[in-house]
Design a protein that fits this description.
Blueprint lengths: L1 E4 L19 E4 L8 H5 L4 E4 L6 H4 L7 E4 L9 H7 L2 E3 L6 H17 L1 H9 L23 E5 L3 H12 L3 E5 L8 E2 L2 H7 L2 E4 L13 H6 L5 E4 L8 H9 L5 E4 L22 E3 L8 H19 L9
Parallel strand pairs: 1-2, 1-3, 3-4, 4-5, 6-7, 6-9, 7-8, 9-10, 10-11, 11-12
Length: 315
């Protein structure tokens, strides 16, 4: 059996991928372009993939293909209808990154709330050492206790963030498709209007694509902090940029983008250097422990398929 790993660098160079060899011949590539993909998967029985789009143009000549393993929870890079038509199984890796994405989300919020970047700079640049005061207390920062934290999307990660926010003393409100009993569920509009802090954890679907645009940013409280660790395309990046530049938002954190990596034409380039902006390179999911869980789940998915007990199956 031929197992093709198309973009192992998305899992990190430090990860041990040798476990896949117990299932067959492993061919691995650090990265794969869309143009290279059809040739590389032509003889594959199993594909392990993260970013490369799996559609008819890529898969049509892969006549032996039986299983695609997505090394992520989201699978918007895979044409599910085409795979269903071909009888190709697709399995994802749910819940592997809950702890680290929640951790990074809260870290971003805490840093933006307390202006840690600026206070650190006072010391590292020598400004504090030259001061006549024992304390530097500007910019002014506020406690999170008593603030309203709105969570858009309430899967494993959203719920993990809610638990931490609740522990901080925040009033947690939630926007999700099906209500829950343990947190207050509200419409998106109400969440945007009421929240001091907003974090986004929903999947990218036809309904969530572009769900936050200029109108939605204008609904938000002046000074609100917004963090997106979901997908870049769930909001209008130009509108998010403008909301920072015009001073409406108090802070913005983002780890995901509509295309990755970003280039000099991306709207967020205008925000580089802003003290109230934290932009990170799609790393929130990727603690060593999380990446290890992810790949172990992929191996379990392959084993389950071969044993006739498929796991984490999308189709």
């Amino acid at each position: 059996m031929n197992i093709v790993i198309l973009d192992y660098k998305t899992l990190g160079d430090d990860l041990d991928l040798s476990g896949a060899s117990r299932f067959g011949n492993v061919i691995k590539y650090p990265v794969t372009s869309q143009e290279q993909a059809p040739k590389r998967v032509k003889d594959a029985d199993v594909i392990i993939v993260n970013k490369v789009k799996m559609n008819e143009s890529v898969l049509k000549d892969a006549k032996s293909l039986k299983l695609i393993c997505e090394t992520a929870t989201g699978y918007d890079n895979i044409d599910i209808e085409y795979c269903k038509k071909r009888g190709i199984r697709v399995a994802n890796t749910p819940a592997y990154s809950t702890s680290c994405v929640a951790q990074v989300t809260v870290s971003m919020v805490c840093s933006l709330m307390t202006h840690l970047h600026e206070y650190r700079r006072f010391v590292h640049d020598g400004e504090y050492q030259k001061s006549i005061s024992a304390n530097m207390l500007e910019p002014i920062y506020h406690e999170m206790d008593g603030l309203t934290w709105g969570i858009i999307g309430f899967g494993n990660i959203g719920r993990g963030v809610a638990k931490i926010a609740d522990a901080f003393g925040c009033n947690v409100i939630v926007n999700k498709r099906t209500p829950v009993d343990d947190f207050e569920c509200v419409t998106l509009e109400e969440l945007l209007k009421r929240s001091d802090i907003i974090s986004i954890h929903c999947p990218l679907t036809d309904k969530t694509r572009g769900m936050l645009g200029k109108e939605q940013f204008e609904m938000m409280k002046k000074g609100a902090i917004v963090v997106n660790v979901a997908r870049g395309a769930v909001w209008d990046e130009e509108a998010a940029t403008e909301a920072i530049i015009n001073g409406h938002l108090g802070g913005l954190g983002c780890d995901v983008f509509s295309y990755e990596p970003i280039d000099e034409n991306h709207p967020f380039i205008k925000l580089l250097g802003y003290d109230n902006v934290l932009i990170t390179p799609h790393m929130a999911w990727g603690s060593f422990e999380s990446r290890t869980r992810c790949f172990n789940t992929v191996l379990s998915n392959i084993e389950g398929y071969l044993n006739g007990t498929p796991k984490n199956v999308i189709v």
